[in-house]
Specification:
Layout: E1 3-5, E2 12-14, E3 16-19, H1 29-41, E4 46-48, H2 57-65, E5 74-79, H3 94-108, E6 113-118, H4 127-139, E7 143-149, H5 153-166, E8 171-177, H6 189-196, E9 199-203, H7 226-229, H8 239-254, H9 259-268, E10 276-278, H10 283-290, H11 299-309
Parallel strand pairs: 3-4, 3-10, 4-5, 5-6, 6-7, 7-8, 8-9
Antiparallel strand pairs: 1-2
Helix pairs in contact: 1-2, 2-3, 8-9, 8-11
Length: 324
């Protein structure tokens, strides 16, 4: 496994991280625990979850899986998206964040999280309130580092400026949809993060499985795929991205690797990317993803991948989660 600094912080994370959105949903408890242990045994040290994944079941499963292995794991979770009903059940207010952190710590069976992330920008709460709350959490020892997710470049830059002016802990990372099928972050977010030393953590690095090459049309969902098990995922499918998946598959076959490994390896070459989080629901799927760390991308192959995906720099973002 290869390790990189998360932004310009001193924290080292594995180039490939484990995303756990499917744990407790598309992957049952036993399979999820086996996947976590498999990842750790392979050198993965970054595990990413959120308070809302699988109705909080993801955090509970991770807490159980890490009962004897918490040391050495960089554990990341999030809060801010809608958690339930009521006027304070979402957002980045002091009330909501403090409440959600305490509940996440209980489910994760730990007294701290390594990276606490705001799941999306909250236009209804002053940034000063959110950032001061996060700084207090760090000072209390319940959080070690803080990160953002689904922030526009200007929102992230504003937050960094406020933290710097107040002497508060700054965001060291940001999560965003980023892949060969979604290069929109390269317009503003990537240059900003490169300049400010913020580490990018791509989510949907395989565009929900499209870049694995398993989809052949919008109307046909392969058995067991995300579109098959989650009908709502169908809104992400379009023929142009499916065609890209087929093109990447042909390039991968020529080099005797998988489309998934090739797509993940490409992301690892991008400026400011610190760790690429990718999910799995089967051990063999995780094993294939792990091969991405050792894929050799020569200049010719990089050029081909860049050219094939260039049109997705100015397309509609693949995913973008915001508060209503």
């Amino acid at each position: 496994m290869k390790y990189r600094r998360l932004g310009t912080s001193g924290l080292e994370v594995s180039a490939l991280g484990l995303g756990t959105n499917a744990f407790g949903k598309r992957a049952d408890r036993e399979t999820s625990i086996r996947l976590i242990h498999q990842a750790l045994d392979s050198g993965v040290n970054f595990i990413d979850t959120a308070n809302i994944y699988a109705s909080s079941e993801s955090e509970r499963i991770i807490g159980e899986a890490l009962a004897d292995r918490r040391q050495g794991v960089v554990l990341a979770t999030k809060a801010g998206l809608v958690r339930g009903e009521g006027p304070n059940a979402s957002g980045s207010s002091r009330l909501h964040l403090q409440q959600e952190l305490e509940q996440s710590l209980k489910r994760l069976k730990t007294d701290y999280v390594d990276l606490y992330q705001i799941h999306t920008f909250d236009p209804y709460t002053p940034l000063e309130e959110t950032l001061r709350t996060l700084d207090d959490m760090v000072r209390a020892g319940k959080v070690r580092y803080i990160g953002a997710s689904n922030y526009a470049a200007w929102e992230l830059m504003k937050a960094i400026g406020i933290s710097e002016s107040r002497g508060w802990t700054k965001y060291i990372s940001t999560q965003v949809s980023y892949s060969l099928a979604d290069r929109t972050p390269e317009q503003e977010l990537v240059p900003m993060c490169t300049d400010q030393g913020v580490g990018i953590i791509p989510y949907f690095p395989l565009a929900g499985g499209i870049l694995s090459g398993k989809y052949h049309s919008v109307k046909e969902a392969p058995a067991g795929s995300r579109a098959d098990t989650d009908p709502n995922f169908g809104r992400f499918l379009d023929e142009e991205r499916i065609a890209l998946g087929r093109q990447v598959s042909r390039l991968a076959a020529d080099r005797e690797t998988s489309a998934s490994a090739l797509s993940l390896a490409w992301l690892m070459t991008r400026p400011a990317v610190s760790t690429v989080i990718v999910g799995a629901t089967r051990p063999e799927q995780l094993e294939d993803n792990l091969r991405s760390v050792s894929v050799d991308l020569d200049p010719e192959l990089l050029t081909q991948l860049n050219d094939l995906s260039d049109r997705f720099r100015y397309a509609k973002p693949f995913a973008w989660y915001r508060l209503p």
